[in-house]
Structure formats: structure tokens, C-alpha cells
TrEMBL record:
Organism this protein belongs to: Skeletonema marinoi
Record's protein name: Leucine-rich repeat domain-containing protein
Pfam families: LRR_5 (PF13306)
Superkingdom of this protein's organism: Eukaryota
Stored InterPro entries: LRR_5, LRR_dom_sf, Surface_bspA-like
Length: 242
């Protein structure tokens, strides 16, 4: 059922086939009866601007919103998995609310060129090319649950300036995650309530395990990795337990 106003057509999606969705719908509300957004359900819907999920939806399947050029805002409070190419080339997407999102699969937000920042407090795995060519993205925040960022996840995010990740072994799963991130200047390594710039830290101020973890992250991101060949000068900030 669609409610129509001045250039505003709200459609409540209750499941069913793609052809049931009005091509001129601008705002989508997902009904409580829908628990999964199936693959390619809203693919190539040129007028959709906003999608509002309820908190029982846990998965957005492959290509569900791919090539929706007008999509600006997605509210998905319960989603835990976003599958491959789910928001592929959503050029206008600027606002993603996804506090419970755990797994971001390959190319999930590929070429979302208007996305400026994203907060992923529950994310555990970010797969390859998940945010590639998000060229307006400046700030990415991960929480303590993050386990792994895979190959090329943030390549050619040319505006990216700052990323927050936990201080854990194995987080950086490849050396070329940040190729083309020419403006990346600060990496916050989160471990506790206190922070200080790593350049000013001495071995005596950190326990041995914390220091070795810090070294591994720095080596992965600026040592043998590709960032060094672009002359990127990254400042690391470490948040440590007192």
C-alpha cells in the first residue's frame, strides 16, 4: 500500500515480488511481518530516498538496494548481516544507522560516494572492498568487537582522515586495505579510557603485550604495506587502560 503526497510516496513493504513495489515510491517502511530483506528486492528503484526497518530484521541479502541512486538514509536498528553488494553504487547515501551490524560482506557499500562517516560499534568482520570508492568518507569508527578487516576494504577512500579500531592481533588482515587513502592522518587504537599519541609513548608507559600489539598494527598499516609508497604520514593515537 502506498500513501501519496507532494513528491512523497510512502510504501509499506509486506513481502512479495519486486514487481509489486511502485517504481515511484520514495519512502519505504518495512512491515513487521518481514524478517529478511531478500536479494535484489529494491534493486534499481530510482526514486527511493529513505528506508526504515523494524528492529527484528537481521539480514539484508545480496544486492537488495543496489543501484538506488536517490537513496539518502537507511535506518536498520536490528540488522546484523549486510550481504554482498547490498548497497552497491547508492550514490546519494549519506546516513546509515546500523548499531547492531556485525558482518559487512564484500562490496556491501561499494561506491557509496556521498557517505561521509559511519559508526560501527558492533561490527566484527569487514570483507573485501566493503567500502571501496566511498570517496566522501572521512571518519570510520569501530568498537571493541571488531575481529578482522579484509583485503581492499577501504581502497580509494580518498577523503578518509581518521579511523578508530580496537588494539587486537589480526585486525588488519591484509597490507593493502587502505590503498589510495591519501588523506588518512590518524588511527585511534582503542583499549581503554586514556589516550595519548603513540609517538610520545615509551616502553615503560605500556605493558609489553600492549606495546607489541601497537607495533603490529603500525607495521601492517605503514610498514611493508602500500600506504608508505604514497608518502602518507599517519599519526597513531592509543587509548590504553590506566
Amino acid at each position: 500500500m502506498a500513501a501519496r503526497g507532494d513528491n512523497h510516496i510512502t510504501y509499506t513493504y509486506r513481502g512479495g515480488e519486486r514487481h509489486d513495489i511502485p517504481h515511484d515510491a520514495t519512502h519505504i517502511i518495512i512491515a513487521k511481518s518481514v524478517l529478511v530483506i531478500l536479494a535484489e528486492t529494491f534493486r534499481r528503484r530510482p526514486k527511493i530516498k529513505e528506508v526504515e526497518f523494524h528492529d527484528k530484521i537481521e539480514k539484508v541479502e545480496e544486492g537488495a538496494f543496489a543501484f538506488c541512486p536517490s537513496l539518502i538514509r537507511v535506518i536498520m536498528p536490528g540488522v546484523k548481516i549486510v550481504e554482498g553488494c547490498a548497497f552497491y553504487e547508492c550514490d546519494a547515501l549519506t546516513d546509515v544507522e546500523c548499531g547492531k551490524l556485525e558482518i559487512i560482506k564484500e562490496q556491501a557499500f561499494f561506491r557509496c560516494r556521498s557517505l561521509r562517516s559511519i559508526n560501527l560499534p558492533s561490527a566484527r568482520i569487514v570483507e573485501e572492498n566493503a567500502f571501496t570508492y566511498c570517496q566522501a568518507l572521512t571518519d570510520v569508527k569501530f568498537g571493541s568487537k571488531l575481529d578482522r578487516i579484509e583485503w581492499a576494504a577501504f581502497t580509494v577512500c580518498t577523503a578518509l582522515e581518521r579511523i578508530t579500531i580496537p588494539l587486537k592481533d589480526g585486525i588488519i588482515a591484509a597490507a593493502d586495505i587502505f590503498i589510495g587513502c591519501y588523506n588518512l592522518k590518524q588511527v585511534d587504537l582503542v583499549e581503554g579510557p586514556i589516550h595519548e599519541t603513540i609517538a610520545s609513548c615509551h616502553h615503560t608507559s605500556l605493558n609489553w603485550r600492549t606495546w607489541k600489539r601497537r607495533e603490529k598494527v603500525m607495521m601492517a598499516m605503514t610498514g611493508a604495506g602500500e600506504m608508505s609508497q604514497f608518502g602518507v604520514d599517519v599519526s597513531f593515537v592509543l587509548r590504553i587502560s590506566s
